[in-house]
Known about the structure:
This protein is mainly α. The chain contains 25 helices and no strands.
Amino acid sequence: xxxxxxxxxxxxxxxxxxxxxxxxxxxxxxxxxxxxxxxxxxxxxxxxxxxxxxxxxxxxxxxxxxxxxxxxxxxxxxxxxxxxxxxxxxxxxxxxxxxxxxxxxxxxxxxxxxxxxxxxxxxxxxxxxxxxxxxxxxxxxxxxxxxxxxxxxxxxxxxxxxxxxxxxxxxxxxxxxxxxxxxxxxxxxxxxxxxxxxxxxxxxxxxxxxxxxxxxxxxxxxxxxxxxxxxxxxxxxxxxxxxxxxxxxxxxxxxxxxxxxxxxxxxxxxxxxxxxxxxxxxxxxxxxxxxxxxxxxxxxxxxxxxxxxxxxxxxxxxxxxxxxxxxxxxxxxxxxxxxxxxxxxxxxxxxxxxxxxxxxxxxxxxxxxxxxxxxxxxxxxxxxxxxxxxxxxxxxxxxxxxxxxxxxxxxxxxxxxxxxxxxxxxxxxxxxxxxxxxxxxxxxxxxxxxxxxxxxxxxxxxxxxxxxxxxxxxxxxxxxxxxxxxxxxxxxxxxxxxxxxxxxxxxxxxxxxxxxxxxxx
Length: 521
């Protein structure tokens, strides 16, 4: 597409950039206050904030972590590319909370009695298998590393666009990564949660402005219906069976994948009590209606207003739409800086949470396995060093992969994280479930998910299998040489294999055995 004003996107003036700079610097102040509030140099205090989060803090930290740069940039870009069918994302995000309710209350009760700090603590305590614990921890670290990557991509894109190119993508990623490292290592979970409270409030305010602009200035989706049909004549066609299956697959991927986020599980542990946790999750169940729905409508309406965006360029849809709205309605001038702050807030709140979870798993689940006599101060120090190393590596990857779409990177992460679900969801309910069965299932599921994600057709070609051999197979077999066979995500196929292998191993090798319930240990 030729270079036009549309391509430039929304640019902040000097005043707006100063506002954003002051906002980012304020996060350092909050991080310092979190450091001052530390009660002890222990893993529980650093990684769980002393397990003292009340309803307000817990809800806002869950909300700010759940809705990130993936939502404001990736979801809107995906809605632009897909159209109305992407409304299924609203259901998928609501399904995530359903996933939490299957295990969160019971896991919380166990975490209080048995002092869990990480997901690995639960796995090791439940199954007494170091191999299984290490494997699940490595899957969690991969998923969180990908999460940091996608959100750094969103941050770099945002900074480059709103500064009109005055701030380079690479420079923005480096500077914002440094800020997050400082306040995350200073105050741990307490600093992260306190910054999330600020960020959650900004998110809600910015979404209110977007909703106002969409429905009162632009008139809602009905006002652009004619233009939508011109730009995409097939936009009103009902989805076929494969598309419906893809919708269900996405909902399942979110249900099993997002609910396994290690940093979200740590927030379950950090709740002050079980009632606070349940109330927070009950409110979270309705947040997709005031978050995901608004963002999807923004992307769909942009199809008619900003036609012609392609690939990774469509991830800038949010900023392009804001630029158009501010240009047309000067009274919405405050919307620009506030929305930019909201995207930064959503993105940073996710990155710092993921980074904190990675450092806790490395220090608590991996390092302590080798050095069981290490002090809490030593483990916390190892965790802080891990944060620095991981951030440096992910920053390098972000710079190298900046042409990838955020949505695709999000999918890849969830394909892998979904394989952890049987260990948590079944492990809490099935008392005799063995470590051997869970390990066999999670390995088999991960292999299938990775194989399908990496383009099986290309992989077979690398081993000398010609395309003619593949094309000669029946249609239902050829489908399995795609990343989404029959419209189903690779992670869901992997999860199906995961469950099947788990059941086969459980009933063939563990018949008659009864594991000791956690409550009785």
